[in-house]
């Protein structure tokens, strides 16, 4: 799997719709200071579900929406789509290309899509689990992240390694199964109490 394209509209400096094509090898993005290079990385993090405005170098989530310039009025919506090449079927979806979209309106409403079908953020996170591209995954190393990993506590570093090794998906499933089991056990106890009362 690799990121083959990014489409951005209304996100930070990118007011008009632009599509960046990325090849399977190394792509370098060059431009003057403040031209929006880091905003592209922010856009990728954002689609992957980043919920912290601070991590996107803003103070509120609507800071990601184009705020206007000397020549352009602000817009009301930001939209970013990541196009992932899935010809190696590393994502559990029967599509050669997977498009993941996030939209956010000034009103505060947000939407997520996988291949243009509305979905929950959880669906995107589950889809990308163990690929290293999920939020907090290793595919995106922002400025300062390397130092953070090196200085992390052993348990935090272990979770990074577990995601890389592909264990995170099973750990999450185990946690969910355990929660369901606990709920069933509580129901059973309640049922036994009721039966006891009826006897
Ligand atoms: P450098 O080389 O200095 O790191 P860069 O190319 O990475 O720069 P970015 O940090 O991506 O640049 O972009 C910063 C620019 O994005 C600033 O000019 C800022 O005004 C602009 N910007 C950020 N958020 C918005 C927004 N919501 N609307 C319009 N412009 C924005």
UniProtKB/TrEMBL annotation:
Family: Belongs to the SMC family.
Domain of life where this protein originates: Bacteria
UniProt subcellular location: Cytoplasm
Origin species: Neomoorella thermoacetica
Subunit structure: Homodimer.
Coiled coil: 167-199
Domain notes from UniProt: Contains large globular domains required for ATP hydrolysis at each terminus and a third globular domain forming a flexible hinge near the middle of the molecule. These domains are separated by coiled-coil structures.
Binding site for ATP: 32-39
Name listed for the protein in its UniProt record: Chromosome partition protein Smc
Function text: Required for chromosome condensation and partitioning.
